[in-house]
Amino acid sequence: MSIKPNWLRVKAPQWQRVGNVKGILRDLGLNTVCEEASCPNIGECFNAGTATFLIMGPACTRACPYCDIDFEKKPQPLDRNEPKHLAEAVRRLQLNHVVITSVNRDDLPDGGANQFLRCIEEIRAISPDTTIEVLIPDLCGNWEALEVIIQGKPEVLNHNTETVPSLYRRVRPQGNYERSLELLQRTREIAPWIYTKSGIMVGLGETDGEVREVMRDLRKVDCDILSIGQYLQPSPKHLPVKEFIPPEMFESWREFGESIGFLQVVSSPLTRSSYHAEEVRKLMSIYPRNP
User: Fold this and answer.
1) Is residue 3 part of a domain?
2) Measured between alpha carbons, how far is 123 from 94 in angstroms, rounded to an integer?
3) Residue 151 domain flag
4) What is the pTM of this model?
5) What does the buried/exposed string (b/e) look like for 59-96 if buried means 16 or more CB atoms within 10 Å of the residue's CB?
6) Which domain holds residue 74?
7) Which of 94, 111, 182, 184 sits in a 20 to 30 Å window from 26, CA-based?
């Protein structure tokens, strides 16, 4: 499975624009999941002047065998200036929509919830028209911490289920499928005006039926938006790709997802959690919600 099919090839980025974005991020001491997780869309997104910010450092407390984010380094104390620096980057990049995600910080009592809240508040202070999406970990089931994040009133709350239940032990050994669904359900109950979102990877050995069952489970907790993308092996030490899924299957999942009530399904081989995330602004104009 080492030879990628044609549909997974991406255009070479315009490195001048990429360099400009990287320069701003380095100047402010910020990390992006685009770089840390070796995202295949880094060129396209950086050329468009967008980035998914990775807060609370690049070192993760979990060792998911599909992910390229470093788990061998010791997590560092939180940077109190990070929220202000992130907000400044949003201002300099003139972002209409920003995605904030994080590594798992199971070493923190709140899982980093207050850092998420501070980042949201700082962005609101200097870029009030920017819509905010948070892509959060499961917080070890700390629902009080979830409420802290929701206090910031992000427009979108994203939490990825990542894979099908039968593969959790191998793919996401420190995660819990039911807990992830509960997080999305509790978000809907606490703040029904928030657009909830989730994402899964395919090509790890799941079946078509299992993917559709996850989609049904997400709709049972009233999840609004779903992203489905092809898993790509970051390095030989990570889980191997079992199958490269053809574009036609992604289109079939998109059609099925829309038929069962998702407001939006972004499904393609190169789709990632934050790929074209700014398109949610169009969705918000069609299905407006007020806090």
Assistant:
1) no
2) 11
3) yes
4) 0.89
5) bbbbebebbbbebeeebeebbeebbbbbbbbbebbebe
6) 10-286
7) 111
How far, in Å, CA of 97 to CA of 90, rounded? 9
**pLDDT tens by residue, the chain, 291 residues:** 557 777 776 554 444 455 566 677 777 777 655 444 445 545 555 555 456 788 998 777 777 777 766 666 778 899 999 999 999 988 988 888 888 999 889 999 999 999 999 999 999 999 999 999 999 999 999 999 999 999 999 999 999 999 999 999 999 988 899 999 999 999 999 999 999 999 999 999 999 999 999 999 999 999 999 999 999 888 888 889 999 999 999 999 999 999 999 999 999 998 887 767 778 888 999 999 987
What is the domain count for the chain? 1
Classify residue 2: in a domain, yes or no.
no
Angle, in degrees to the nearest 10, between helices 113-126 and 82-93: 40
CATH assignment at residue 115? 3.20.20.70
For the chain, give the number of residues: 291
> Per the domain annotation, does 5 fall within a domain?
no
